[in-house]
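Q: I'm teaching a short session on how sequence maps to structure, and I want students to see two examples side by side rather than one. Could you give me a first protein with its sequence written out and its structure tokens following it? Keep the formatting plain so it prints cleanly on a handout.
A: Of course. Example one:
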Amino acid sequence: MKVAIVPVTPFQQNCTLIWDEETGKGVVIDPGGEVEKILQVLENEKIEVERILITHGHIDHIGGAAELRDALDVDVEGPHEADRMLIERVAEQAIQFGVPAAKPCEPDRWLQDGDEVDIAGMTFSVLHCPGHAPGHVVYYNEDARFAIMGDVLFNGSIGRTDLPGGNHETLMASIRDKILPLGDDVAFVCGHGNHSTIGEERRSNPFLKGL
């Protein structure tokens, strides 16, 4: 399994590419925009995209999904259907944050807690982790001890909860009940900034004190 991060848009959102180096098959996770930039990396790495995965419906994570789906002719999976309203209002989100216009991208498959998705030939579990967004999901592979965290937990911080649908208590419950029990050795890519491990965040993240 190979992983590449493509920071996109002024939000510097971590669009994540994961693929099997032998087969070349993989996925794109959270194409928030700058689709031509993403397509160029896919071409350079010779990645055959099987699907697009979304962690949640904020524009910096889903803003380029419709355009990329059209370009690649693949399905979009995720997030949880609780983010339907966010996705339907993606054009309004673009105006609100002053970024290029985007069109809604209803997933071909909404995901539920406990579902599984195939990423580069590996099975990832779906964890529904609301709080930053109502339908936010995290993708986790037990064997690799690796997760795609989205905007639930960051290196040194947590997802903001002042956007529509956000709730601080709900987010902290998601981190306490769904993320921390995965284990300190689990490494993760987050939606913005540098990667980390759950153990490092448990030890040093000021937002996790008392959990």
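Q: Perfect. Now a second example for contrast.
A: Example two:
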Amino acid sequence: MGTLGFVWDRANDLVLLVHRTNRPDQKHNGLGGKLEPDEDVATGMARELHEEAAIVPLKMRLRGTISWPGFEGPGGDDWFGFLFLITEWRGQVPAANDEGELAWVPRSALMAWCDPATRPDSGLDFHEGDAHFLALMFDDDPRQFHALMPWDDGRPTGWTVSRL
């Protein structure tokens, strides 16, 4: 189980992303990681934000959950993620962390990546399938989403979502 958070500077409409240049897949992503055995999801998200971006969340909202069975391939871990939107924090974000570069990216670039027609011009590279949930992270629907995205051979094979 893990957390994935997107820090959104609403005033400037920018989203904090990590470009994981120190990992083989070199993808862009939000911040987060595995939950520790002794922590709840909010505590885990706060810990990851502090470890990866030197910030302390002051306002965050659980937007939804996703089950990613088969994400790490045969014999690897299945993932279940709690996805948060962080809209207030304190601290100064560094230029990089152990995984790669940290950058404030226009939210419009994330939305462009979600559209296959504009994806090549977005300048971003997320995991295949992330387009399904990125738009849900920032929409005006107050309901949480709960999704299933099975993976096989390094690729998503489906997507189902419900909102409650």
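Q: What should students look for in example two?
A: Point them to this: The radius of gyration is 15 Å. Also worth mentioning: The first strand starts at residue 2 and ends at 9.
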